[in-house]
Design a protein that fits this description.
two-stranded antiparallel ribbon; 2 strands; mainly alpha; 17 helices
């Protein structure tokens, strides 16, 4: 079968996870002074080696999809760079203002990312200026979202490019919504690395619980880096945000503050205790259960790590066809669904039969939500002919192809629009991405 192109590399995932794993082991033994500095330390443990490998090893900056031209040298346009910087700092200020006014998250969720921003500002400010100056000289189409938004703020454009501004705003809405809370989650997990280290010596179930904590930290670190590093230089820019209302609904329902209402009250799939409280009561199931729990989470982490610097919700940042995506189009959702079933296990952990029934039914609702997310992602990514080619190929290659024979709705169908129209939209997305 034809080998499909991919923007990802298993080597990127391996290098990043190994370096991050060493950082986690160090912080487990030598705790950080505070959660924020500990989280930033792990971010650097992952970001630096992965960035170097992307540039020096994979030469991602040379890919045509970056929109950068390395063959011709263009004189810098300082005025345009200043306008882009106005756009960048303007959109940053808008994100902070929206959080301050609307209080999307609780205040304690925002203290840690604001503290991190304060620590990083002296280092990142000159890097941001240098990045915009350098990349602007190489862009085939320097008129991007930052420039358009900067022009709008400076009132220098009487005829704004509203479709471009819409994609730009959606891209930053995604980053501004998810990045702060993901960093807060990461920072809040940091103390557990050292405080819970003794769990490794308290039996196999306790050790497995500690390992899942470490894997949560791995996953969160990669996610935070992914949201932050939407840069052309690494071919990690947002090519297009998902503008489908259904996609936003099924995605946001999985995250704060909406998940507290949904999975916390409407369909509560967790009981007062989880799998670790009862696993020891079932001698024949304990070790298979532990192996399945850790395997599901390892698959989840692999499906995240393969993105490298490109992970995020609701965006198209390049098509990935290798790693776990060589076996199924949505390995992360498969892994999450399995992990939720294995760790919640309401049929074993519930105090009453009614709790067992409602918890089990709620898990089916969770599965339906992730199925909806998969469908919405496919609909968005199908604007790219590369994804259409990949998804059609997966009808024959996927490990679930046998199941699709009996459940036809699992089979991918190419969009009805003409291929030329699909290609045109893809080219437009690559030429004028949100970032």
């Amino acid at each position: 079968m034809k080998k499909l192109d991919t923007v990802a590399s298993n080597w990127t995932a391996l290098i990043g996870c190994v370096c991050l794993g060493l950082g986690i082991a160090y912080r487990a033994v030598v705790p950080a002074e505070n959660p924020v500095s500990g989280a930033l330390f792990l971010i650097l443990c992952y970001l630096i080696p992965v960035s170097l490998f992307e540039i020096l090893g994979r030469k991602s900056h040379r890919r045509a999809s970056t929109g950068l031209d390395w063959e011709t040298s263009r004189s810098p346009d300082l005025q345009r760079v200043v306008v882009k910087l106005v756009g960048f700092f303007g959109i940053m200020a808008a994100v902070v203002a929206i959080h301050a006014v609307f209080r999307i998250y609780a205040v304690e969720r925002l203290i840690m990312p604001l503290a991190a921003l304060q620590l990083l500002l002296p280092v990142c400010l000159p890097l941001v200026i240098a990045y915009f100056y350098f990349v602007d000289r190489r862009m085939r189409e320097p008129h991007d979202g930052y420039h358009e938004f900067g022009q709008l703020l400076l009132r220098r454009n009487s005829d704004p490019d509203w479709p471009l501004l819409k994609d730009f705003a959606l891209g930053w809405m995604i980053k501004g919504f998810f990045l702060p809370v993901m960093f807060a989650y990461l920072a809040l997990q940091m103390p557990r690395l050292h405080l819970d280290l003794n769990q490794l010596m308290q039996g196999p179930v306790a050790a497995a619980v500690y390992l899942t904590t470490a894997l949560v930290i791995v996953e969160l670190t990669i996610v935070v880096v992914g949201y932050a590093m939407t840069l052309r230089l690494f071919d990690a820019h947002i090519r297009s945000p998902n503008g489908l209302l259904g996609a936003w609904v099924v995605t946001l329902i999985c995250y704060e503050p909406f998940n507290k209402i949904a999975s916390g009250q409407i369909y509560p799939y967790r009981t007062e205790q989880d799998w670790s409280a009862v696993a020891g009561d079932y001698a024949l199931l304990m070790w298979p259960w532990i192996i399945l729990v850790l395997s599901a989470f390892l698959l989840w982490v692999w499906a995240t790590a393969i993105f490298g610097l490109r992970w995020s919700n609701l965006t198209h940042r390049g098509i990935i066809t290798n790693g776990p995506y060589a076996f199924t189009k949505h390995p992360d959702y498969v892994a999450k669904s399995l992990f939720f079933w294995l760790t919640a296990a309401p049929f074993l952990t519930a105090a009453t039969p009614w709790q067992a029934v409602t918890g089990t039914l709620s898990l089916f609702v969770i599965n339906a939500v992730y199925f909806g997310r998969a469908r919405m992602e496919e609909k968005h990514l199908s604007e790219d002919p590369d994804y259409v080619e990949y998804a059609l190929a997966m009808n024959e290659r996927s490990i679930f192809r046998g199941m699709a024979r009996y459940l036809p709705f699992l089979t991918y169908h190419a969009p009805d629009r003409q291929g030329s129209d699909t290609a045109r939209k893809s080219d437009a997305a690559q030429g004028l991405p949100a970032e």
